[in-house]
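Hey, sorry to bother you again with one of my protein questions. I've been puzzling over a protein and I'd love to understand its fold better. Take your time with it, there's no hurry, and the full record follows here:
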Amino acid sequence: MLPLVHPVPLLDPDEGLHAAISSEMNARGDYIVPRFLGEPFLDKPILFFWAQAASMRLLGETEAAARLPGLVFGMLGALTTGWLAAIVLRHRAGWIAAPLYATMLVPMALAEVPVHDIALVPFTTGALLAFWCASRAASAHVILGWSLVAGVSLGLVILTKGLPGVAIVGLAHGTVLLLERRWSLTIVAGGVLALIVAIVVAAPWYLAMEHLNPGYLHYYFVERHVSGFTTELQRHGQRPWSYYIPVVIGGGLPAALYAVLSVQRPEPDEHAIGDARRLGWAWLLTGWIFLSLAGSKLFTYALPLFPAIALLAAIPWIRYAEGRGKGLTVAVVAHAALIAALLPLVLAAGTVSGVISVSLWVVLAETVIAAGCSVAVRAWRNGSVERATSLLALSTAAVVTAVLTILLPAAATSFTARDLALALNSHPILPARLLVVRERIGSLVFYLDPRLRRGLTPDRFQTVQAREIRERVVPRDTLVAVRARDIPRLANFIDMSGIRFAQAGPYRVYIARDLGAREDPHQ
C-alpha cells in the first residue's frame, strides 16, 4: 500500500506513459483506442488501460489513482495463487502460498510500481486452476464447465498482454496432462472450448481496433508476437538465453529458498504433494524455457511464473506440519538472514538520504521485523505453519517497504519528468517544440496542465539522441531539455561552454539554436 500513502512521481519509461495514455482515454471519452499525444498506441492491449482509466476517473489524476490497479491486481495474484495451492495441495497450503507470493521481491516491487504484466498473473493462475479442476472432474459437463471458466480467464489474458500468457498456461497444462496420462476426448474438447471462449471474449476489442486502425492485427500479432519471439531486432532483444535465471531465482526470494526443498521425492502416500510438484515444476520450467527462447526479453515478462514458485514453496511447509519435511530449518534461517541483510541497506539508505533521524517507517519496520521473526519462530516450533509463514512474510514486507520508502523517492528524480512538466506549467503557452534528449516522455505529458495538454500533437514533444540536435531543422523558439547526467554525452557533439540554460529539477533547458539546431522561421 506504499504508493497510496507515500506519493512518489510516476516513473518513466513505462509507468508515466501508461498513466498518460489512460488519462487521455478519459479526456477523449474513447475507451477503444489507447492513444498517446493523439496517436494510437498499438504496443499494448486494453485491459490494464481500462482499469487505470477507471481508477483515475473515480479518484482523480493522481499517482495513487494511477497505481491503485497495480496493487489490486497484485492482491488478486496472491489470492488466486493461494486458491490454487489450496485446491492442488491442501486447504492450509493456500494460507502459505498467498503471503509467500505477495512478498517475493519482483511481484512485490512491481505491484508498487505497476506494469501490464502484473495484471496477467491472476488470469494465468486462474486459467491453470480451472484447467486443473477440469482434468480431475468426474463428469463431462463439469469438465466443460471448468473449461469455460478457463476460457474466460484466457480471454482476459489476451486482453492484457496478447498470446504469451496463453502459451505459458498451455505449456504447463499440457505437460501435466502428458505426465499424468490424463488425455481424453472430453478433456481435449474442453481445451478446444476454452480456446474458442477466449477468442470470443477478446475478439470484439481486437476487431474494433482493426476496424479503426487497419493493419493493427498484423502489427500486433505478426510483428510484435512472431517477430518478437523469433528475432532479436525489437526492443529488449539481444539478451542471453540465461537472462531469466537470476530474474526468477533472485526475484523469487525469499519463497525460492523453500521452493528448492520441493525437489525431495514424496512418499508413496503423498499424492497431493506429488501433484503440486508436477504442476509447479512443469509451470516453472516450461514457462522459463518458452521465455528464454524468445528473442525479446524483459524481466517483467517472467511475472506469470512466480505463482509456481509460491506453490512449490508451500510444499516443504506442509510436509513439515505433517512431520515429514527435511531441510526447512536451513531455509527458515536463510530467510531470516535475508531479512537481516536488508536492514543495513535501510540504515545506509536513510543515512545517505538524510531521513534516518525522522523516518518512522524505519523504526516501524525494525519493530515489526523483530517481533514478526520472533513470533514466527515460536509458531513454527509449535507446528502452526500458516501463522509462521504469514509472520515471516510480514517481516519481509516490512523491511522491503522501509527500503522502498527511503530509496524510491530519491531514485524517482532520475526516472520522472514531473519537474520539467511543472516548469512548463508555469508558462501560459507551450514552446513551439520541445526536444527531450534520450528520454521517453510519458510522465511529462501526464503532469502537464490539462489546458496545455489539449491539442498537443506528437511533433510538439519529441525524443532525440544527443548527436541529432545539430542536424534538426526546428521551429523558432524550440527548447531542448536534457538531464544534467547526460550533459557529458551531449558535450561529445556540442561545445557546451557558456551556453545559457534554465534549471527544471534534474533537467537543464536550452534554446535549440544555442545548441546548433537550425531554425525554420516559416514553421
